[in-house]
From TrEMBL:
<protein>
    <submittedName>
        <fullName>HIT family protein</fullName>
        <ecNumber>2.1.1.-</ecNumber>
    </submittedName>
</protein>
<feature type="region of interest" description="Disordered">
    <location>
        <begin position="83"/>
        <end position="116"/>
    </location>
</feature>
<dbReference type="Pfam" id="PF01230">
    <property type="entry name" value="HIT"/>
</dbReference>
<feature type="domain" description="HIT">
    <location>
        <begin position="233"/>
        <end position="333"/>
    </location>
</feature>
<dbReference type="InterPro" id="IPR036265">
    <property type="entry name" value="HIT-like_sf"/>
</dbReference>
<keyword id="KW-0808">Transferase</keyword>
<feature type="short sequence motif" description="Histidine triad motif">
    <location>
        <begin position="318"/>
        <end position="322"/>
    </location>
</feature>
<feature type="region of interest" description="Disordered">
    <location>
        <begin position="329"/>
        <end position="350"/>
    </location>
</feature>
<feature type="compositionally biased region" description="Low complexity">
    <location>
        <begin position="105"/>
        <end position="115"/>
    </location>
</feature>
<keyword id="KW-0489">Methyltransferase</keyword>
<dbReference type="InterPro" id="IPR001310">
    <property type="entry name" value="Histidine_triad_HIT"/>
</dbReference>
<dbReference type="GO" id="GO:0008168">
    <property type="term" value="F:methyltransferase activity"/>
</dbReference>
<dbReference type="GO" id="GO:0032259">
    <property type="term" value="P:methylation"/>
</dbReference>
<dbReference type="InterPro" id="IPR011146">
    <property type="entry name" value="HIT-like"/>
</dbReference>
Amino acid sequence: MTPRLTRKRRAALLRAAAHPRGNIDPRTVSKADEIALETLGFADSIDDCGHVQGAPDPEGEHRGHPHLFRITTAGRNEIAADTATPCATPDKGRSAPAAAGGGPDTMTQPTTPDPLDVRREIDRLQRESDRLLIATAARSAFEDLVDQHDAMQRQGDNSPEADAVREEAAEYLSGRRPVPPPVRPGELITHARDRVAVLARLAEAGVEEAALGIAEAEAELAKELHKVRADCAFCAIAAGTAPASVVRDWGDVLAIRPRGGVAEGHLLVIPRRHVEDAGTDPKLSGRVMECAAEFMAEHVNANIITSKGDAATQTVYHLHMHLLPRTADDELPLPWTPQQEAARRTEGNR
């Protein structure tokens, strides 16, 4: 019996297609999934030269090469054909649209959605799911590459594998290959909510498995909402679950207008990922500073201020940098100005 390309297996292929080397993360598939994908010819154990494990190797050229579970050309063609067909038949994990030409019980009720409209919405949701899967996989592969590159640099690794990693990293550093932007939490939350709404319409239309689809979408929504720290206003803004006036968005960093800014042009520059302060993750702090510096270049006079801890006047424990344009007569005190003035008065009374 030929195995089916289930939603989970299809998602693994989508992620692999976005990976620079076509790798399939073993954490995302079971052994049964691996066997099924191999049986279908969509994945196999392949080395960097394209040699399939077990295939003839009379010269021994591929002996000792690491063979990783990767998507095959047939797998890439399957994904390309599937995503190019807007009305592909949904799989078990994907709720099926109501069949066109249904009986009078489903087609004559005024509250029953038009099957063609439902099909279009399902196709739209599937395309968005594919986009998010591919974007997430591409970003994850890039971050894995950066971590691998940094580890090899620290260890002074000069092996052929390390050279290959350096060459791949150089593609991004040189700009020849664009850096994949991170998928924003708000996008995942919006998509999950959208799925719940569409599947609810399917359930009303009497489509089988719609209830299961709703439960899955609600669980996905709950998981994404759980990632947003309930006690952090900036996390909620970064996730798109709280309103904010966004001035610039770099993907991983935001510039927003604070409520009740202390000066004209006052901005807050915050990372999407939650870190408490500038000392928690120096690399991320440097990235936030890099973004804030873009605004500094636009002003003749300005301050960049960030704080760590209560004694340093930090009130929101999510790294943020204040950018304050300044003028000679703004009379705006910095956090330490009152202490300086008190010290000068004390000095003058001696």
